[in-house]
């Protein structure tokens, strides 16, 4: 129980530091309608709420994941870091489709369903972010679009 309380406190402190660092994001007069700070604020707020919940109500008898689960989590982190680096040169659609398909395959190892989930998430998120939220996303790499 003490480990859960310490973990919850650390997550809460890191989330608050993340929110504080998001206040330093520079905005220009040509910023997106949502603004560049809103997403980090939301992520930090959700993380802080989760950390507070874990600190207040820890699990009495936690089951630790197996080594295989830790390996899958490390693989997912590597995929997401690669996704972050691939967004700028490759645009939004291709890296999002590949990343979503890989992560979907990790959840349920059915290749066809994972590929369809990746494509659907990529196109669906692009439509939401580009047209509903008005974000300035680039769909494909410049080499493909000319």
UniProtKB/TrEMBL annotation:
Bilayer-spanning residue ranges: 38-56, 68-86, 92-108, 115-144
Keyword Manganese: no
Origin: domain of life: Bacteria
Keyword Transmembrane set for record: yes
Xref: InterPro entries: DUF1468 (IPR009936)
Domain DUF1468 intervals: 6-136
Identification of the protein by name: Tricarboxylic transport membrane protein
């Amino acid at each position: 129980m003490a480990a859960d309380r310490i973990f919850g406190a650390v997550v809460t402190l890191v989330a608050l530091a993340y929110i504080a660092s998001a206040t330093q994001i520079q905005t220009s007069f040509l910023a997106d309608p949502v603004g560049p700070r809103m997403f980090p604020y939301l992520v930090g707020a959700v993380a802080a709420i989760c950390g507070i919940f874990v600190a207040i109500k820890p699990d009495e008898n936690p089951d630790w994941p197996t080594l295989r689960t830790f390996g899958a989590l490390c693989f997912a982190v590597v995929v997401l870091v690669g996704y972050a680096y691939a967004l700028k040169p490759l645009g939004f659609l291709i890296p999002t489709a590949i990343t979503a398909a890989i992560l979907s395959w990790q959840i349920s190892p059915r290749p066809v369903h994972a590929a369809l989930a990746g494509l659907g998430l990529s196109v669906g998120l692009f439509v939401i972010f580009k047209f509903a939220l008005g974000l300035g996303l680039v769909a494909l790499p410049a080499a493909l679009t000319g």
